[in-house]
Amino acid sequence: SCSSRSEAKSGRTDLIFLIRFRHCCLLRNQRCILAYLYDRLLRIRALRWEYGSILPNTIQFHMSAEEVEWFNQYKKSLATYMRSVGGEEGLDLTQDIKPPKSLYIEVRCLRDYGEFEIDDGTTVLLKKNSQHFLPRWKCEQLIRQGVLEHILS
Amino acid sequence: SLVQGSKLEVPLWLAKGLHDSKRRIISVELPKIYKEAWRTVFSADANVVDLHKMGPYYYGFGSQLLNFDNPENPDIAQTILQTFISRFRRIMDSSQNAYNEDTSALVARLDELERALFRAGQKGLNDFQCWEKGQASQITASSLVQNYGKRKFTDMDG
Asked: A108 φ, ψ to 5°?
């Protein structure tokens, strides 16, 4: 009975080892997946700030449904927050990320975009290589999206 | 079907998971750069060592090694810390003084943690120069756009 007890004990030790080993592998796989998904989420969040609130189709095509949903919720949270600060109109935190030096800026068009309306009702034709002197707050998003280039004088 | 006493190479995460101070399933042998012989070299002059060749994650990996209840742990920890302290000054200085030049020689012998620090220093330097030139207010395209530049990125009818 002494030998069968030690046999049982060593069998149990083997089992412990196996269970532990398998559990380690599962946890590791889980960590890798989570790291990957989290990295994607950080990039998606950055898109809201760097690119804008509407993602191009080429990007959305590569996102999972859950990621699109996450982006929409994030957008909503951000919009709610921005409305709640800065008084009646709220404050667009995604604008003027770099400290502005002037109200109007010089821009060059990097590709054909079409007609673009400015605040006083006039429109500008944004054709590739055309240069314009426009209000900074109207151009900011187009510069970030690579349509226009900000030229410093 | 592993026989007791057999030696294996396993990844760190597996060793960590299997290690148990009470049950003694595995024991871990230190990689040579954390052993006494190399520790003496590090304490003599840490600046000459090529930490990238010695396993590019000297600090991170060394810190993780401390999980295995090795009696040499206090000495290992001390060596890792002192190595960092002696090397850091040079890394910080060179990252702040190398502007617009090829830094590959400076960076070649650094481990990954040191490289990240070097890059942070360089970014600070470049941002400052940019500000001095009056470019800090220039709006730039998002990095995403710059990377996808060649592809068609014109689906903006939203």
From this structure: -120, 140
